């Protein structure tokens, strides 16, 4: 569980640093995050999740964040998957 939380925390920190730029350029999109990098942007959280599972497998660590100026808890999707 520590690896999961560490990945979520690192991805979120990297995401928030880029948030002003992302909100201006890609509002409402969903960012697939891995190792503090935005891998790709998607229209839906589900599309980002499916792509993450295809790229990294169901047991890989990645997270999905919505690009919005307000804090949004995506529940399951805001947590790295393991």
Q: How are the secondary structure elements laid out?
A:
Blueprint: H1 2-25, E1 30-34, E2 37-42, H2 45-56, E3 63-66
Antiparallel strand pairs: 1-2, 1-3
Q: Strand order within the widest sheet?
A: 2-1-3
How many domains, as an integer? 1
Structural class: alpha+beta
Residue stretches low in confidence (pLDDT < 50, at least 5 long) are none
Number of helices: 2
β-strand number: 3
What's the order of the H and E elements? Answer: HEEHE
Shape: globular
Note the main sheet: 3 strands, antiparallel
Summarize model confidence as the mean pLDDT: 84
Rg on CA atoms, Å: 11 Å
Distance between the termini: 8 Å
Question: Which bin fits the share of residues in helices?
Answer: 40-55%
- Strand-residue proportion: 15-25%
Commentary on this structure:
By secondary structure, this protein is α+β, with helices and mostly antiparallel strands. It has one domain (2-78). It is built from 2 helices and 3 strands. The chain has helices at 2-25, 45-56; strands at residues 30-34, 37-42, 63-66. It has a 3-stranded antiparallel beta sheet with strand order 2-1-3, sandwiched between helices. The protein is globular and about 35 Å long. The mean pLDDT is 84.
Protein traits:
18% strand; 44% helix; 82 residues; globular; alpha+beta; single chain; three-stranded antiparallel sheet
In short:
With 82 residues, the protein is of the alpha+beta class. It contains 2 helices and 3 strands.
């Amino acid at each position: 569980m520590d690896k999961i939380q560490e990945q979520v925390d690192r991805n979120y920190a990297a995401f928030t640093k880029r948030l002003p730029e992302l909100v201006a350029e890609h509002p409402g999109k969903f960012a697939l995050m891995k190792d503090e990098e935005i891998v790709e942007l998607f229209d839906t959280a589900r599309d980002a999740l499916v792509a993450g599972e295809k790229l990294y497998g169901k047991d890989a660590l990645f997270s999905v964040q919505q690009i919005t100026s307000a804090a949004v808890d995506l529940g399951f999707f805001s947590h790295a998957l393991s």
